[in-house]
Amino acid sequence: MKLNRNYDNLQQSYLFSTVARKAREYSQAHPDADIIKLSIGDVTLPLAPVVVEAMKRAADEMGKKETFRGYGPEQGYDFLKEAIAGYYKREDGVDLALDEIFISDGAKSDLGNILDLFDADNTVLIPDPVYPVYVDTNIMAGRRIVMLDSNMDNGFAPMPDEGQDADLIYLCSPNNPTGAVYTRGQLEAWVAYARRKGALILFDAAYECFVSDESLPRSIFEIEGARECAVEFCSFSKIAGFTGTRCGYTVVPKTLLGGKLNAMWLRRQTTKFNGVPYLVQRGAAAVFTEEGMSQIRANIDYYRENARIIGEGLAAAGIRFVGGKDSPYLWMECPNGMDSWDFFDFLLERANVVGTPGAGFGKNGARYFRLTAFGDRGRTIEAVERIKKALG
Ligand SMILES: *Cc1c(COP(=O)(O)O)cnc(C)c1O
What we know:
Largest sheet: 7 strands, mixed
Low-confidence stretches: none
Helix content: 25-40%
Number of strands: 13
CATH topology of the largest domain: Aspartate Aminotransferase, domain 2
CATH class of the largest domain: Alpha Beta
Radius of gyration: 21 Å
Strand order of the largest sheet: 2-8-7-6-5-3-4
Bound molecules: pyridoxal-5'-phosphate
């Protein structure tokens, strides 16, 4: 038996464990300190009532002989694929065939699993700072990775470099961790570059629901030519609070490589995956009903208002940042030349507020700090007041 030695090349991630340990130690040393977490990368509002009702009805069906369901289609039930196709049509003006949509237990799994379809001998282009899953899944497979600098100069929306070869390209917009969003013109340039290079764009649209500016694209398939060079990953985690319920979907156009990639993904999923629970798919489909959308919008607006409040506070304190508009993340420059861990300690001690040091997302994050809008409104307001005071 020989091990996959590529795992030895993975860097140990101490980011979230170190953040948690430092907050815990501070708390033990200062039992009266009331610590507020603006570091939370998970949603906090509960599932919408229509989703819960749909899952209860589905559970009842599963308990009756006449309506019980066993194995479903590995790639998902048509009722959910139809609901997703309807959402793309309404929101983005994008037409998708049902057999281009694959339901899964979340975007993270699919982002990792899609790599089954590609040879190890491919050059992978990944922005830095980044959601660590893209880097680690490619290290596990031993692929060449080229990091693309994402920084204040390019507005944390890096653009292609003609001289750079690439086979697989990761784009995440709205971005985690920076909250930056690509414009239509920028994505057009990426699509043109990918087509010239014969590359495939892996587009992570997990935060598309936070885009409120109508001029900004929410799906890569709003861009002409993207059906020839892109796969899109999306999730119910952020739009509808499914982080613990688990459901996502991946769009693989049949126009990619004459249908070859779609056929390979279908084969991969039917071989290695047995589908998402029926009741979860019923809950997910309820998100896209009229009532579901109105309940979900109220939740998204709550987080958006939190983001606006944090952004307003940072601006008032004279801090440079990106994100917070069309995104639940704010990516701020650490003040007074502090690096991201110095600023973490400063904020914890002076304001009793916890955020996430940018260094954990790549070298370009070393002087930046991520704040999130997923918290409670009152606590968010309190945290912003304390940050302003600490910086004042
Ligand atoms: C949260 C998130 C996802 C969604 O992951 P799930 O597995 O569907 O919960 C995907 N990409 C990014 C960048 C994320 O932050």
